[in-house]
Amino acid sequence: MSQTRIITLFNQSGGVAKTTLTQNLGYHLALKKRRVLLVDMDPQASLTTFMGLEPDELSISIQQTIVDNKPLPIYPEPIHGMALVPADINLAASEMQLSSAIAREYRLKNGLLDVQDNYDFILIDCPPSLGLLSIISLTAATHILVPIQCQFKSFKGTELLLSTITQVRSHTNPRLQFAGFVPTMFDGRTAQESRTLKAVQEQLSEIGTVYPPIPKTIAFADASERRVPLALFDKNHPAVGILKKIANSIDKLELKL
Ligand code: ADP
Ligand code: MG
């Protein structure tokens, strides 16, 4: 059986740091000499952009695997020590193009089969929706990691998220496990966020590990503007230590038999 841990970062809300975490956790796993592949499953291709590529200028996209059933198009050179499968805007049409395809939920899972043993970790960055691309990403995963903002409205959204996971488990991926929840963009100065963090820790820890919160800081936007992981922009930033800690926990995730 493959030992590769395939982790899908999922939350149907946008702007909760899915892409930021995919890039940064991948980077810290790569620093630990783990072989890391990042897969961009969002038609907005933010991960591809954060990694320094121009989605419109590439001749490869995950769409080739998802729509055309072709081998996984891995970018020819590693970037910051990680392999990358880029996305582009054409991926947006795939949900329609696949509308009558048989076993379409398994397109990424099948595409990964040929290459997964070359990696210790595969991190999949989802679009902000409950649509087919997210289901395809969750079907391919061994684990799901959920970035969550400590605001009341995002906490409410977890009910919908959990029912999606239940659906995926009962239809396409019974082995899907929770890698846990990462509270993101946490502003400890506001009483409401501190209360919500406490509620997240109390209520969600029954479902999966709740990792230490990542502070809200402009440094992430600065790093992504320079198209590098945070540690390459400011290696002494306090958030770097937290990312490292989370990566260490992810590194210990086990596979269900
Ligand atoms: P998603 O992929 O969930 O839509 P992104 O990772 O693209 O979210 O993040 C959305 C925006 O928030 C980006 O501009 C990113 O730089 C910024 N961001 C990410 N993490 C943090 C943080 N901890 N504090 C402040 N801004 C953040
Ligand atoms: Mg994103």
Write the layout of secondary structure elements.
Elements (H helix, E strand, L loop, with lengths): L4 E5 L8 H14 L4 E5 L5 H5 L12 H4 L16 E3 L8 H4 L9 H7 L7 E5 L6 H9 L2 E7 L2 H20 L5 E8 L6 H14 L14 H7 L4 H4 L4 H14 L6
Parallel strand pairs: 1-4, 1-5, 2-3, 2-4, 5-6
Bound molecules: adenosine-5'-diphosphate and magnesium ion (MG).
Organism: Nostoc flagelliforme FACHB-838
InterPro entries: AAA_dom (IPR025669), DNA_Partitioning_ATPase (IPR050678), P-loop_NTPase (IPR027417)
Pfam family, one: AAA_31
Please tell me about this protein's structure.
The chain is an alpha/beta fold and 257 residues long. The chain has a single domain (5-251), classed as P-loop containing nucleotide triphosphate hydrolases (Rossmann fold), CATH 3.40.50. It is built from 11 helices and 6 strands. Strands 3-2-4-1-5-6 form a 6-stranded parallel beta sheet, with helices on both faces. It is globular. The N and C termini lie close together (9 Å). The model has no long low-confidence stretch (mean pLDDT 96). It binds adenosine-5'-diphosphate (ADP) and magnesium ion. Residues 5-177 form the AAA domain. It comes from Nostoc flagelliforme FACHB-838. This is ParA family protein. Pfam families: AAA_31.
Fill in the CATH topology. Answer: Rossmann fold
Tally of helical runs: 11
Rg over alpha carbons: 17 Å
Contiguous uncertain segments of 5+ residues:
none
Helix content: 25-40%
Identify the CATH class.
Alpha Beta
Distance between the termini: 9 Å
Annotation, overall tally of beta strands = 6
The domain count comes to: 1
CATH architecture: 3-Layer(aba) Sandwich
Q: Write down the oligomeric state.
A: single chain
CATH fourth-tier homologous superfamily: P-loop containing nucleotide triphosphate hydrolases
Q: What small molecules does this complex bind?
A: adenosine-5'-diphosphate, magnesium ion
Spatial strand order of the main sheet: 3-2-4-1-5-6
Give, in order, the helices and strands. EHEHHEHHEHEHEHHHH
Shape: globular
Give average pLDDT, whole number: 96
User: Structural class, please?
Assistant: alpha/beta
Domain AAA: 5-177
Pfam families: AAA_31 (PF13614)
Protein name: ParA family protein
